[in-house]
UniProtKB/TrEMBL annotation:
<dbReference type="Pfam" id="PF01965">
    <property type="entry name" value="DJ-1_PfpI"/>
</dbReference>
<keyword id="KW-0315">Glutamine amidotransferase</keyword>
<dbReference type="GO" id="GO:0016740">
    <property type="term" value="F:transferase activity"/>
</dbReference>
<dbReference type="InterPro" id="IPR002818">
    <property type="entry name" value="DJ-1/PfpI"/>
</dbReference>
<protein>
    <submittedName>
        <fullName>Glutamine amidotransferase</fullName>
    </submittedName>
</protein>
<keyword id="KW-0808">Transferase</keyword>
<dbReference type="InterPro" id="IPR029062">
    <property type="entry name" value="Class_I_gatase-like"/>
</dbReference>
<feature type="domain" description="DJ-1/PfpI">
    <location>
        <begin position="7"/>
        <end position="171"/>
    </location>
</feature>
């Protein structure tokens, strides 16, 4: 059986906590029954250091990333997004979307997609509407949704305070779990509701 692959963008100051829930659920498949391969990608083969101080050696360099060999691109927040950086990653996101491969972006990465015009025609969210309105090149204010996470076709977006909802929405977009399972997932990991745990572990 072919294993699906998620490519996770790596760069210095990557916000570890924002994508932690998602990549764990993808890699383990513990609540979906469908483990994925998680492959890290960076602009060079040099190690990167996350915001939490983890030093990670990438599996792949960006120049070799082919959307045809991927099932998801994950973009986390990082300091460079607010400085107007990240063009290589938004270019990659555009290639993925042109190939109809989903892109999941959280926090500052949503600003990068906004600057690239990739949110103009899709429903989306971010840390706040004003955050995106401040981004040069953004014209998607009419498609902004005030929600913890939003699935807009092939793009999943969320703010930095919503890593659980980001995971839930991405798993939903990928068709990896039922609405009941995903609600239980959010109830357990966001609301700390023990009554939802049996529903979650019996999901598959």
């Amino acid at each position: 059986m072919t294993t699906n692959t998620a490519h996770v963008a790596l760069y210095d100051t990557l916000a570890d906590w924002e994508i932690g829930h998602l990549i764990v659920e993808l890699r383990t498949g513990r609540f979906t029954g469908t483990p994925w391969k998680v492959v890290t990608v960076a602009e060079s083969a040099e190690p990167v250091t996350t915001m939490g101080g983890l030093r990670i050696v990438p599996d792949l360099v960006l120049a070799d990333l082919d959307p045809a060999s991927s099932d998801l691109l994950v973009l986390a927040g990082a300091e460079f997004w607010d400085a107007g950086g990240g063009r290589p990653w938004t270019d990659a996101a555009r290639r993925f979307l042109d190939a109809r491969v989903p892109v999941a972006a959280i926090c500052g990465a949503t600003a990068g997609l906004a600057q690239a015009g990739l949110l103009d025609d899709r429903e989306h969210t971010s840390a706040a509407a004003g955050y995106l309105l401040a981004q040069p090149g953004y014209g998607g204010q009419d498609r902004y949704v005030d929600a913890r996470a939003v699935v807009g076709g092939d793009v999943v977006t969320a703010g930095p305070d919503s890593p659980v909802q980001f995971a839930r929405s991405t798993l939903s977009r990928l068709g990896l779990a039922s609405d009941e399972t995903l609600q239980a997932y959010e109830d357990v990991f966001h609301r700390a509701d023990p009554s939802a745990y049996p529903v979650l572990v019996q999901a598959h």
